[in-house]
Design brief:
- The chain has 471 residues and is an alpha/beta fold.
- The protein folds into 2 domains: 1-31 and 70-100 and 361-471, Alpha-Beta Complex (Aspartate Aminotransferase, domain 1); 102-346, Type I PLP-dependent aspartate aminotransferase-like (Major domain) (Aspartate Aminotransferase, domain 2, 3-Layer(aba) Sandwich), CATH 3.40.640.
- Helices cover 42% and strands 12% of the residues.
- The chain is built from 14 helices and 11 strands.
- It has helices at 3-21, 54-65, 87-99, 110-127, 141-156, 161-164, 183-190, 211-223, 246-256, 293-296, 311-318, 349-384, 410-427, 454-470, and strands spanning 134-138, 172-177, 198-201, 227-234, 259-263, 288-291, 304-308, 388-390, 398-403, 433-437, 440-446.
- A 7-stranded mixed beta sheet has the order 1-7-6-5-4-2-3, with helices on both faces. Strands 8-9-11-10 form a 4-stranded antiparallel beta sheet, covered by helices on one side.
- α7 links the parallel β2 and β3.
- The longest helix has 36 residues, at 349-384.
- The radius of gyration is 24 Å and the shape is globular.
Length: 471
């Protein structure tokens, strides 16, 4: 393919992209309506020997791939947490892919390193973190949490585990809310600490970690010869967006000298609003903090911002300098290869720079406030309906609810709500998910897709009520 052919094909694809995002996506079913192996069986069993025209490949993309896509950028996508996009982010992704820079060292692209440093400072200040926090962009909150636990492991072992490996004398414990994301336990496994040493802490009626239960678990472990290593607090847990009491947990971690990590993967974006920053009171006691702009801040996946109080603990845990990576600038610059697991790094800061500059801080706040208001409007409608029940506080833009008509047992209610969920999702008109809270089958609806509007929420509520009546 030469430049002229590339130009021709690119224009055609950009037109398709613009049509897709400018209303075209709303004409498609939100969740893919295919059966298992339906896409696989349409793909050639062997790689082609000869090259094919790009026009043919693009037609197959439209005819084979698109039916198997669940449309995360659909305004009727209310499942999981969103993986949002926006025009400025998409434009930055195009430039990132064109440059195809591998930004592991300052020298391999100075602009990428220095922009990352500056943009991380912008976000730190916007969400109200203290100025002593320093950060880097990771691929996900899962990776960021692993960094926190590994950094804690090395700091508390005086950095000997990287050299000697885990030994019998290392009897670490990690603590988190019973409603925290599963990536925490996975990180504990990867770090060699083991699931048996991971202690979920009970929560209260608002699904918030109980500090007294945490302190009791720590005290018991100390008496039994364990080393409390790390506590992970959730700011917006996955099932219910529960808010752990950061101030109280931080005080406990300080007392017992435990690494304190705050996982705000989804809800951290809400801290752009000054009126929401009270939720991170006490965050100055944290050792690390993460949230994902690729969820609710209109920045394409992947983009996770990870902050640390003590950069030396991070660098001593992950820095390795073979001869072929030595440069003349040395330690006089930041080399982000030392700030995480990956050596190779994409120019992710570019899309954050584009998004923040395009929307401006106030533009971001306007959209986030809209999502919160849409959620509160629907919350009031559900509360007013005699046959629907809210099952968790609505602090952000997630509503946990169920259909609860009279004279049904808990088992019958579980079966009934599961049927409602599957019927709604099979319709292709909206997409929601479920969880279990206090043993109850719970429907989850998130109102946070980039272009969601009141009409989309009204339509979802209408569909939910209609489906409930038919069961």
């Amino acid at each position: 393919m030469n430049a002229n052919e590339f130009r021709k094909q690119a224009h055609e694809m950009v037109d398709w992209i613009a049509d897709y995002l400018d209303g075209g996506v709303e004409k498609l079913p939100v969740r893919a309506q295919v059966k298992p192996n339906e896409i696989y069986n349409q793909l050639a069993p062997h790689a082609p020997e000869q090259g094919e025209p790009m026009a043919n490949i693009f037609e197959d993309f439209k005819n084979i791939v698109m039916p198997g896509i669940t449309h995360w950028q659909h305004p009727n996508f209310h499942a999981y947490f969103p993986a949002n996009s926006s025009y400025p982010s998409l434009l930055a992704e195009m430039l990132m892919s064109t440059l195809a820079a591998q930004c592991m060292l300052w020298e391999t692209s100075p602009a990428a390193t220095e922009m990352e440093t500056r943009v991380m400072e912008w976000i730190r200040d916007l969400i109200g973190l203290p100025s002593f926090f320093e950060g880097s962009i990771q691929n996900s909150a899962s990776s960021s949490t692993l960094l926190a636990i590994l950094s804690a492991r090395e700091k508390f072992s005086n950095f000997e585990i990287n050299q000697q490996g885990i030994q019998s004398k290392h009897r670490f414990r990690v603590y988190a809310s019973e409603h925290i994301h599963s990536s925490i336990e996975k990180a504990v496994r990867i770090a060699g600490i083991g699931s048996v040493n991971y202690r979920p802490i009970k929560t209260n009626d608002a699904f918030s970690m109980d500090p007294k239960a945490l302190e009791k678990a720590i005290s018991e472990d100390l008496q039994n010869g364990f080393t409390p290593l790390c506590v992970v607090a959730g700011l917006g847990t996955t099932s219910s967006t529960g808010i752990d009491p950061i101030d109280a947990i931080g005080a406990i971690c300080k007392q017992y000298q435990i690494w304190f990590h705050v996982d705000a993967a989804y809800a951290g974006t809400a801290m752009l609003l000054p009126e929401m920053q009270h939720m991170i009171k006490g965050v100055d006691q944290a050792d690390s903090f993460v949230f994902n702009p690729h969820k609710w801040m209109f920045t394409n996946f992947d983009c996770s911002v990870y902050y640390v109080k003590d950069r030396n603990a991070l660098l001593k845990s992950f820095s390795i300098l073979p001869e072929y990576l030595k440069t003349e600038t040395g330690d006089s610059v930041i080399n982000y290869k030392d700030w995480g697991i990956q050596l190779g790094r994409r120019f992710r800061a570019l899309k954050l720079w584009f998004v923040i500059r395009h929307f401006g801080a106030e533009g971001l706040r306007v959209k986030i406030r809209l999502h919160l208001q849409l959620t509160q409007n629907l919350k009031k409608q559900m509360e007013a309906h005699p046959d629907f029940e809210l099952l968790a506080p609505v602090d952000f833009n997630l509503i946990c609810f169920r259909f609860n008509p009279k004279n049904k047992t808990e088992e019958e209610l579980d079966i009934l709500n599961e049927k409602i969920l599957h019927a709604l999702n099979h319709s292709g008109e909206i997409y929601i998910t479920h969880t279990k809270l206090n043993g109850k089958y719970t429907l989850r609806m998130v109102i946070g897709q980039t272009n969601v509007a009141q009409r989309h929420v009204d339509n979802a509520w209408r569909l939910i009520q209609e489906e409930a009546k038919q069961q």
